[in-house]
Each structure stands twice: as C-alpha cells, then as structure tokens.
Amino acid sequence: MVVMRKFTCGNLHFFKPFLNVKLSIQSYLDQYGSLSCVDDIKCSDASCSYGQPDLWMCMTKHCESTGCGRTKGQHAMLHYAAQSHHISLKINTLEVWCYQCIKWVGKRGKHPSEVQRVEQIVSQFLASNLSSPSRTIQSLQQHKIFNDRRHLEREMYQLNEEDKVYFLSVEFLLAWRKFLLGNEMPPENINNKSLVVNREDWAYVGSPDGLPGGLELMNPYMAPFHDFGIISEASWLTLCKYYGGGPAMSEDNIPKDNPVYFPLLQEIATGKQRIVDQCKGRKPNAQGSSTSSSL
C-alpha cells in the first residue's frame, strides 16, 4: 500500500517530478538557463525584461514559466491568477511560496514532512559536480543561509494593543525590506540617528532640559510610515541581537506633556492601532505586512 504524505500545503503533492524520481534537474532547468549563469534568466513574459534577484519559477509539472515578483511586473502572480499554478520558487533564495495557502512552505520548525519535501528540491539546486562551485551556486548557498532568519523576521510586524512600541528609521526599513524580500543580503547596523533631536536644539522643540535619565529626544516633526516604522519591544530586542546599532527610540523618548509632541503622539497611536487591526484581520501564517516578503 502506498502511503501519501500529509502536508499543511496540499499543493506540494504536485511539485515537478524531480522531487520523486532520480532525474537530472538540469533537464527541467534548460528553459531557465544553466545554474552557472542564473543571472541571465529573465521573466518569461515577452513584454518584460526584469531578471534577478526578484524572479519566481513555477513549480507545476510541465510548466516552464518564470515570472518577476510583485516589486517588479508581478508576472509570477499574474501567471498564478491565469493558470491556477499554486507553487512557486524564488530562485534567488530557493524559498517556496504557495499562492493558494498564502504562505511560505517548508519553513523550519513547522511540519517535518513539508520541510523535508522542500529541502529535496533545494538540495538539487545546490548540487554541483564541479570541484569549485560556480559563482551562482555560491550566491544561492549564501542567500539560503539566511532563510530561517528571514522567516523569523518576517513575523516582526506583529503588534498587540498592550505592546510598548519602538521605532525604526525609514532608511533601515527600506534596506531591511530588501533582505526580507530575498533580494539583498542583511543590512548593516540599525541607524536611528535621523529620529533624534540634537542636544543644542532641545529648546527649539520645547524641551530645553531633555528627558529624565538622559534619554534621546525624538524629533517631533517625523511621521510614522513616512520617516519611521513602528514595531513591538520584542521585535526591537530581536533586531538588536541581529543587527546592533541604535539608538533605541521608543515612546519613552517622547515627552507626554509637551504640546509640540501632541500631533506626533496622536499619529503614533493611530498608526499603532492600524497595525494592530491589520494583525487581527490577517490569516494565520499569511504574508502581507509592509516588510513581509511578497511574490
């Protein structure tokens, strides 16, 4: 009797056949180009010239489509919408996304059979008969190292009403988002200096004595979602562990009794509630935050 493995994503049963039989993966990759020159691969859409790093390979049997991601021409998503081909693989990071489940599949720490299934295909992409792996394979290996970390950091949009909020400069957020999308390596240290009022300017914002304990003073003329992002304290502490830098900027860095800061406090409260509401309405395991990776 044949026992069918159970996955949280049922579409994994329809992966291309090289997951189940010992065939050369190259025979299925000829239409995409050799792994030694993956940078030359382009979107399959005739009107599109986008290439790496935001390319997605359809993993439906006999399908040869390679589409660009949502940050480009969205042809991978449009292919799914037109053909109902649910499983796609991001070539740059070798991560697998299911459009129907609206989630990454094969994440470590999740369903063991699902993880094993995805690792089968990933290991074949990284296989090389060369004594010295090609630059492309070395790049894929380097990006894959960070996949578990990407999956963890993609969940950092979570925010609850009772959470103390911290702030991240938009400069760091933009670089961080590219990493979460799998298009770049991790950014350098967190740099929140743009959010800080210089000591010589404290009087101009109505707080000549600063804050108790010598805390940095937040610039009152910054705006959430434009100049900085809002995250929870737990997310801030995790990011500090990975990236370092600073300074730490939170609601503690804002005077509550200074009228100059009243508009900023209201904007932060509104922005926090917006994120909380989005988190409540989001499906479990779904991707959709401003920093979450999207195909």
Gyration radius, rounded:
23 Å
Class by helix and strand content? alpha+beta
Beta-strand level of the residues, as a percent range? 5-15%
Which sequence of strands runs across the widest sheet? 2-1-3-4-5
Helix and strand element order: HEEHEEEHHHEHEEHEH
Helical residues, percent: 25-40%
Quaternary structure annotation:
single chain
Tell me the span between the first and last alpha carbons: 38 Å
Counting H and I runs of at least 4 residues, what is the number of helices? 8
- How many DSSP-defined strands? 9
For the sheet with most strands, the description reads: 5 strands, antiparallel
Given as residue ranges, the uncertain stretches (5+ residues, pLDDT < 50) are 1-5, 16-36, 283-295
pLDDT averaged over residues: 79
Shape: elongated
Give a description of the structure.
The protein is an alpha+beta fold. The protein is 30% helix and 11% strand. The protein contains eight helices and nine strands. The strands form three sheets. Strands 2-1-3-4-5 form a five-stranded antiparallel β-sheet. A two-stranded antiparallel ribbon has the order 6-8. A hairpin with a 4-residue loop joins strand 3 and strand 4. The longest helix is centred in the last third of the chain and has 20 residues. The chain is elongated, with a radius of gyration of 23 Å. It starts with 25 loop residues before the first helix and ends in a 14-residue tail after the last helix.
